[in-house]
Amino acid sequence: MGILNVGVIIMNQVGQNLYFDDYSPTADMVVIATCFVIIVLVTTSYVPKTKAFGVFLAIVGWLMLAAFSDVICHDWYTHVTDGNYTGVYVVRVLYHAFLFTNLLLYVVYILTLMQIEIEIKKPVMRLSVVVYVVVIVIDIVTTVNGKGFNLNKDGTEISGVNIFLIGYLIFAAICLFLMIGFRNRLYKQIMRGFYGSVVVSFLLLYLQGKHGQSSYTVASFLFPTIAMLYLVHSTPYDIEIGAINAKALEDLVRYNYNRKNDLIYMSLLIPDFDMEGKSFPKEIQKVIRKFASEFFRGAVLFQISNGHVVLMARKKMNSDYENRINKLLNAFEAEYEKFKFDYKIIAGVSIEEISRKNEYISFIRNIHRHMKMNTVHMVDYEDVEEFNKYEYILSELGDIYRRHDLRDSRVLAYCQPVYNIETGKYDTAEALMRLKLQDIGLVYPDQFIPLAEENGYIHVLTEIILQKTCDEIKYLINEGYDVKRISINVSVLEMKDLAFSEDIGKIIDNNDIPNEKVAIEITESQTENDFIVMKSIINKLKEKGIKFYLDDFGTGYSNMERILELPFDIIKFDRSLVIASDADIRAKKMVESLASMFSNLNYSVLYEGVETEVDEDRCIRMSASYLQGYKYSRPIPIIELKRFFSKVDA
Ligand code: C2E
Ligand code: CA
Ligand code: CA
Quick check: 636 and 630 in contact, CB under 8 A? Predict the structure, then answer.
C-alpha cells in the first residue's frame, strides 16, 4: 500500500506544475507548536532517560528546525522582488537537509529501540549515512545547476530530479525493513502503533500529492514522533501514588552516573503490603504522596514492589539533605503513631560502586533483609561489603544449582544429634545445612536459605543434603549403629513443584536405604493453598514410610485444625516455647498443656534449643519424647555423628 501511494505522489509531482506560493504555513506552525508541547511534557513529567529517549529528543528538535526553515523559505520567496532567489534556494536546501537528518535519526532510533545487533546495525548505519550524504550533495548540485528545484519568474516551481522524494523513499524503505524484519523485538501492540503512524504519514503525503500541495511534508513526520512519545516514552506513573516503576529507577541511576551527579535515596518497606495481591491502602498512599513531594527538591518516587517504594533526588539540589532526611523521619514518626504498620526505612547517598553496577534495587533489598523491623538505617560502606558477599553467595548458589551435583563439596551436611528420652540414647538426628565457599569460608543458613528460596535454588540444595544424609545413614547402618532416622529440612516453597515427591523418593531409592530412616521437617503453611499442596505431598510420601516433623511450632500463628489434619509424627516445640516456659507460670501452663494434648493425640513432642540441665528437667516433665539443643551437642559435621550413636548390640 505504501508503494502504491508513493507512486501516485511521484506521478502527480512530475505531471503538474506546482505553484510555490500555494504554500500555507499553517501545517508547519502546527508542527512547531506540537514539538514545543512535547518538549514541555517530557521536561515537566518524569521520562526514563534511555538512549532511545535521547534520539527522540533530537528528532523533535530537528523537526522544529525543518518546519521553521520551511516557513522561512516561503516567506523569503514572497519578499523577493528582484528575481534573485538564491536565498530561497539556500534555505530550501537546508530545509531538505533537516528533513534528511530526521530520517537518519529515525533509523538510529529504530536501531536503538529494537536493540539490533552490531553486525546488522553497522552496515545499516553505514548505508544510511552514505544515502544521507549523497542525497544532500545531489540536492545541492541539482539546485545549483538548475536540474532540480527551480523557480520561474511567474512563481511556478519546476521540479526536475526530485531528489528529496528519492531520499525519502530510500529511508522509508530502510525503516520499514527494520520495523518489519525485527518486529518481534517489541511488544506486538507497540509495533501496531508504529505501523499505524507510518500509514497515516503516507496517507497525508498521498493526499497532498494528489492536491498538488507541499505544505504538509513536515507534518507527515509528526505522526511517528507522536507514536514514539506515547508508545515508548510516556511516563509509567501509578496515578494514585505518583510513583514510577523499578525499571525507571535504573534509567535514572544510569543517567546521573554518566553525568557524575550524586543522588540521595530513601527506601520505605512495609512488609504487610509487600505480597502478591496486596498494595498500600488509600490512606497510606496519601501519606507517601505527601512525603515524596514535600521534603526533597526534584525527588522522584519509584514503586519497587507492592509494599516497597524508593525516593531519589539529586544531592546537589538538596545540599542540606541531612536536615531534610531528619525532617522527613520526624514527620514519619507522627504518621506511624496513627497507622502502626511495621516498617523498615533506609537512607543514603549514592555509592560509586553500586551506581556503576546500577544495582540499587538489590542493594537496598539486601539491607532491608538484614535490618530489624521498625528501624531506620543509614547506609554505610559496610552495607556494600555485605552486598558484595551476598552477590558472591548468590552466584555460587546459582552455580550449585546449574551443576546439580548431588555431592557438591560446597554444600556441607552438618547435624545435631537428638536425645531420645524413652531409650535414653541418641538414635535420631537433624541434618542442618552449611555452605563452604572459597572466598568467605563457612556460611550459615540465615545467610543463604532465604536467597536460595527467592531464586528458586532451594530444591537442589535439599537434594544435596538428602544425598549426603543418605550416605551417612548407609554408613551408620553398615557399621552396625542403631540409627532410627535422620531428618532433613524442606522449604514449603519447593513442595509446590510437582516433581518434589518423585525427586525425594528417587534419591532414597537410589541409595538403597529403608524409607523410614528419612524424615522431613516442614514449618506450618501460611496459606490455604500451601496447605492443600502440603497435605497431598505428605500423604504421598508417608505412604512410602517417610516420617514427618512439624518444625518451629510456636513461632507463627498456628492453625490447630490444619495441624491436626496433617499426619505428622513429631511436633517440634520451638526454642521460644522452652524459654517462655521458664519465664512465667502462665506460659509454662500453656506449653505444658499443648505438649500434653499433642502427646495424647499420639504425636511425639520434641523440644528444640534445650541448653541447660534446668531446661532438660522442665521439658521432660512437659511430655517430652525427644530433646535437642546445645546441652547435648552443637551442630557437627555429619560424619562425626557416630560419636553419639551406639551400636545395635551394645
Ligand atoms: P531449625 O530447623 O529450627 O534448626 C534449628 C536451629 O537451631 C539450628 O540453627 C541449630 O543450630 C539451632 N540450635 C540447635 N540447638 C540450639 C540451642 O540449644 N540453642 C539455640 N539458640 N539454637 C540452637 P541453624 O543450623 O543455624 O539453622 C537455622 C535454620 O536454617 C533452621 O532452623 C532451618 O530453618 C534452616 N535450615 C538449616 N538447614 C536447612 C536445610 O538443609 N534446608 C532448609 N530448607 N532449611 C535449613
Ligand atoms: Ca528444623
Ligand atoms: Ca526448628
Answer: no
Ligand 1 pocket, 417 CB below 6 A?
Answer: no
Q: Which helix (H) or strand (E) holds 182?
A: none
Name the residue with the closest Cα to ligand 1, atom 11: 635
- Strand order of the β-sheet with 149-151 is 18-19, 156-159, 149-151
**Cα gap 452→433, rounded to integer Å:** 12
Q: Supply the pLDDT for residue 238.
A: 75
Side chain identity at 337, as an amino acid letter? Answer: E
pLDDT tens digits for range 123-145 = 999 999 999 999 999 999 988 88
430 CA to centre of ligand 3 in angstroms:
10
Cell reading at 488? 532433613
Q: How far is the CA of 432 from the centre of ligand 1 (A)?
A: 6
**Which grid coordinates are listed for 514?**
529403608
Using the predicted structure, report yes or no on whether residue 11 has a pLDDT greater than 50: no
The answer, yes or no, to whether any atom of ligand 1 lies below 6 A from the CB of 308, is no
Beta bridge partners of 436: 442
Residue nearest to atom 8 of ligand 1 (CA): 432
For 389-400, what is each residue's pLDDT tens digit?
Answer: 999 999 999 999
pLDDT tens string 240-288: 777 888 888 998 999 999 999 999 999 999 999 998 889 999 889 888 9
Q: Which amino acid is at 170?
A: I
Residues belonging to the chain? 650
Find out whether the beta carbon of 433 lies less than 6 Å from any atom of ligand 1: yes
Residue 638 near residue 415 (C-beta atoms within 8 A): yes
Q: Is 445 in the pocket of ligand 1 (CB under 6 A)?
A: yes
CA distance 311 to 266: 5
Q: Give the DSSP H/E element, type plus range, for residue 352.
A: helix 352-357
**Helix (H) and strand (E) counts in the chain:** 24, 19
Q: Half-sphere exposure of 491 toward its Cβ, with a 13 Å CA cutoff?
A: 23
Quick: pLDDT tens for 410-435: 999 999 999 999 999 999 999 999 99
Question: Which ligand number lies closest to the CA of residue 548?
Answer: 2
Residue type at 344?
K
The distance from CA 584 to its chain's CA centroid, rounded to whole angstroms, is 47
Distance 373 CA to ligand 3 centre (A): 22
CB 205 within 8 A of CB 1: no
Q: Which residues contact 290 (CB under 8 A, 6 or more apart)?
A: none
Cα-based distances in Å from 75 to 23, 69, 199: 10, 10, 30
Q: Are 147 and 139 in contact (CB under 8 A)?
A: no
Give the amino acid at 190. Answer: I
Distance of CA 520 to the CA centre of its chain: 34
Beta strands in 308-424 (DSSP E): 308-314, 344-349, 375-378, 411-420
In angstroms, what is the C-alpha Rg of the chain? 36
Residue 429's contacts (CB-CB under 8 Å, 6 or more residues apart) are 415, 416, 417, 418, 486, 487, 641, 644
User: Distance between CA 487 and CA 565 in Å, rounded?
Assistant: 21
Please name the residue that has the C-alpha cell 563452604: 436
SS3 readout for 429-472: EEEEEEEEECCCEEECHHHHHHHHHHCCCHHHHHHHHHHHHHHH
Residue whose CA lies nearest to ligand 1 atom number 33: 489
For atom 45 of ligand 1, which residue has the closest CA? 489
As a whole number of angstroms, the distance between CA 452 and CA 400 comes to 10
The pLDDT tens digits of the residues spanning 576-598 come to: 999 999 988 999 999 999 999 99
